[in-house]
Amino acid sequence: MTRATRRAEIIGWGMCVPQQVVTNDDLAKTMDTSDEWIRSRTGIEQRHIAGPQESTTQMAIEAARAALRVADADPREIDLVIVATATPNHAFPSSACGVQNALGSTRAGAFDLSAGCSGFVYGLIMGHQAIASGEHNLVLVIGSETLSRVVNWEDRSTCVLFGDGAGAVLLRASEGPAGVLATHLGSDGSGAGMLIIPAGGSALPASEETVSKKLHTIQMNGQEVFRFAT
Question: Would the pTM of this model clear 0.70, i.e. be above it?
Answer without folding.
Answer: yes
